[in-house]
Structure formats: C-alpha cells, structure tokens
Amino acid sequence: MNKVALVTGGSKGLGKAIALTLGEQGNKVIVNFNRNAEKAKLVIDDGGEAVAIQADITQEDEVKRLASEAENLFQEPITILVNNATGPQPELSLQDVSWEDYLDQLHFTVKAPLLLTKELMGGMQSKKWGRIINIGSEVVELGNPHFSNYVTAKSSVIGMTRSWANELGGYGITVNTVHPGFIPVERHGEVTEESAKGYVQHVPLKKLGKPKDIANTVGFLCSDEAEFITGQNINVNGGNTFGV
Ligand SMILES: NC(=O)c1ccc[n+]([C@@H]2O[C@H](COP(=O)([O-])OP(=O)(O)OC[C@H]3O[C@@H](n4cnc5c(N)ncnc54)[C@H](OP(=O)(O)O)[C@@H]3O)[C@@H](O)[C@H]2O)c1
C-alpha cells in the first residue's frame, strides 16, 4: 500500500500486531510508544520500513512534535492513523470511582484521537485519502459492572467515529472502530483457554482471539478494498456480542 501509518501504543499488545501487519502490507509504519523504547525497537526490528517515536499522545505539544518528526522522516503525510494506545484500566465500583478516573480513560479514547486527527487530517485531505481506525472494546455492549470509567470512555468512541465519518467522508477519509473481545496480551500474563473458560464458554466460536485477529481487521479497513466502509463498528470477538 506504501502509505505512512501511525499506530499509537505500538510497542506491545494489540498495537504491536497492528504495526507489524501494516508493515507487512507495505506501509511505512511509525510505532508510537510512551515508556517502552526497548519493546518499540523490537517491533521496528521485525517490521519493514518502520520507525519508533516516543510521545505521550495525551499531551498536545507531544502530538505536535510526533507529527513533525514523522513528517521530517518520511517527507509525506501520515494518511493511516490507528488510535490504539491505552493506559491503566482500573476496575472501580460506582462507589469508589471518581470523575478523574473517568477523565483518565477519556484522555486515551477521546482526547488523544482528537488531537491526532486535528493534527493529521490536513495531510489526509490534501491526498484525498485517509484511514482513521479507533480501537474500542466489546465492553460497550457488555456494560461490565465496576468498570464504568472504561466502558463510558470506550462508548464515546462510537459517536465520535460516526460524526467524524460524516465530516471527513467527502475527502476520501474513512473512520471506523474495531471492537476487540478479550484478547490476552503481555499485560494479562499467562492465559489459557482453560483459565479463561468462564469467558470462552459464552463465545460462539468457543475460543480466545489473538492479536493478529484484530490486526487483520485493521489491515483490511486500511486497504483500498475497504474504501466504501465508514462510520462502522466492527466487533472482532468470536461473536461474543452482535453489534451496537
Ligand atoms: N487486549 C484486550 O483484551 C483488549 C480488549 C478490548 C479492547 N482493547 C483495546 O485495545 C487497545 C490496545 O490494548 P492492549 O491490551 O494491547 O494494551 P497494552 O498491551 O497495555 O499496550 C498499551 C500500549 O499503549 C502505549 N501507551 C500507554 N500510554 C501511552 C501514552 N500516554 N502515549 C503513547 N502510548 C502510550 C504503551 O506503550 P508504553 O508501554 O511504551 O508506554 C503500549 O504500547 C486499547 O485501546 C484497549 O483498550 C484491548
């Protein structure tokens, strides 16, 4: 595809798989990370034409620096943006949760995607081509208790995606959200089908998903073949939920 793609939080977990897949598709990939330079380096060592750029994407000045470093390196606009990064996701009862706990999540699900999109959309508009993929979560349909900070923040991504899709569609820019189910990554430690059977038994496909399942879906949505898909919520969770 030979586009310039930015994956936020690409140093590990789902972001790493997404960055590697976009690289396999022939894109130049910016692997953004905040703290884990070593892990980000491993991703670019494995990838094609890739660079790692540190930036806390919840901070406006760091987003601007990230965009200008990327532009200097590649001399062309970033036209694929994957809003994937996440911070800690504490489970908190309604009694214990605070407004600050909600804001902590909204900084990742709304603030960072907004800052990045405002920074990058001019380049996409000039190319009359762009792909913005937000990473949501199946929790927006499950409404998990003791997790309203995260569930609320991920739910707001749905309206944001639809509004942006309407606003940017005329420029050939699509905006979609991919909602993963529970996909074990490094931070979950050792997870087996057996240890996760309480979850798996409700999943129609009776197994856990892999980071590559999410990456393949993102890769497709970033391709030219997906040019007529925008404003959508795509659940990648073995059928655990059926759609909002
Ligand atoms: N895994 C699942 O089961 C699952 C299910 C549903 C939805 N999701 C969603 O999928 C996405 C990825 O989740 P994950 O499980 O792969 O998470 P993860 O393994 O914890 O990875 C998070 C990534 O975000 C980066 N990051 C953290 N703070 C950052 C900041 N301020 N600025 C830039 N990057 C930052 C981390 O980089 P550093 O370590 O370098 O700081 C890391 O690369 C998230 O949006 C999550 O909500 C995941």
UniProtKB/TrEMBL annotation:
One of its GO terms (molecular function) is oxidoreductase activity. PROSITE patterns: ADH_SHORT. GO terms for biological process: monocarboxylic acid metabolic process. InterPro entries: NAD(P)-bd_dom_sf, Sc_DH/Rdtase_CS, SDR, SDR_fam. It comes from Halobacillus mangrovi. The keyword Membrane does not apply. Belongs to the short-chain dehydrogenases/reductases (SDR) family. This is 3-oxoacyl-ACP reductase.
